[in-house]
Amino acid sequence: MAADDSRPESGAFFARDSTVHPPALTPSYKTSVARSPKHAKLSLGTTLSEMTGPVFGHDLLGDLDNDLILNFAAPGESAIGPRIVVHGRLLDERRRPVPGALIEVWQANAGGRYRHRKESYLAPLDPNFGGCGRVITDDEGHYCFRTIQPGPYPWPNGPNEWRPAHIHFSIFGHGFAQRLITQMYFEGDPLIPRCPIVRTIPDEAAIRRLIAPLDMNHTIPMDARAYKFDIVLRGRRSTLFENRLEGN
Amino acid sequence: MVQRLDDLKETSSQTAGPYVHIGLTPNFAGISGVYAEDLGKRVIEDGVKGERIVVSGKVMDGTGTPLKDALIEIWQADADGLYNSPSETRGRADPKCSGWGRIPVDMADGSFSFETIKPGRVPHPTGKDQAPHITFWIVARGINIGLQTRMYFSDEEAANKEDPILSRIEHQNRVPTLIAEQDRAGYRFDIRIQGHKETIFFDI
Ligand SMILES: [Fe+2]
Hints:
The complex is a heterodimer of chains A (248) and B (204). Chain A is built from 4 helices and 12 strands; from the N terminus they run αβαββββββββαβββα. In chain A, 9% of the residues lie in helices and 23% in strands.
């Protein structure tokens, strides 16, 4: 492993396993109907254009970037809501940690309201909550941020549809082919199995992997509960030899 | 029974939803004071090598309506065909060309536009050179997993003709969906998610 890790990663990515992802067309999530390609995707095989990707240095980050309770709050104030820590590990399909990866998150406030000009839910804005945060994984792929637990909110997919509480995640791996956006849900939320967006994923086990368990061991006593959310990105071949095979 | 492969499964994609800007371009969304500046605002810096160009267009749904909530990321090589990435093993890319951009479409009319340089040619695993191209990744409400496509250049006819990917496409009548046309403002690249002239998307 050590010799392996000292070389830049330049191997081709494993083909994406489409069975863990939602198909493009999922009529019960109505917006997908006009926003789903009808033609099959063309298989390209990864070239350098997908094996490479931008990298973000730790110097990008401000002190409060991973603290959504404080990063938008007025001095001395803090966001309202159940205080939580969300932490986990970013691995690839080969179980190798993915260090130096940028994770960006966004979410509604504790009342289920987003700070966005196109948002019209009657729940109030929290003047001390912006709703965005970011963090870069450490050498072992760990990340951690502090926030308030977002509230569920209604949305106009059907006459009475509610999203389970969730945090949106955007993840950069080391290659552009690994680019991923997903959502994290909270253990025990009865809205999860009712949600048309959750149910775009055809695989029950894959859905369960999006649900973060309460993690009492990482709770900060008298301060914040913890939820653990591990994320897996596509894996890649490690050697030039394997690359050549890929090219033929 | 056989031994079990111990590979993990990739985490499932979920739609970026209507409020993707809050997380990825908060200043654009009106959330100021958290990050100094939105990431990916500039693909190039002054002093960059190569021909400066502007790329603009719209992203359309199956009814021809422009998406007003889409977000695009682009990734490209520098003028010499090198990527500004630790995984680039052939040499060091122009430090003035990050090669990466993040572009939210206009919330009022759905248009997008960015300035960059025309990328150089990058080799394909077969050893052949690829035609100059920019990789696009598009997310929005209603898109369950980010859509990947490529933009090629209409004034690179010879390179496009011998490109190992473009030339392998079975439905050659769809190839023009990947080629940006030149107009007075620069290059025009419209992306049609569905329907007439549906853009070719790639499984990469
Ligand atoms: Fe949401």
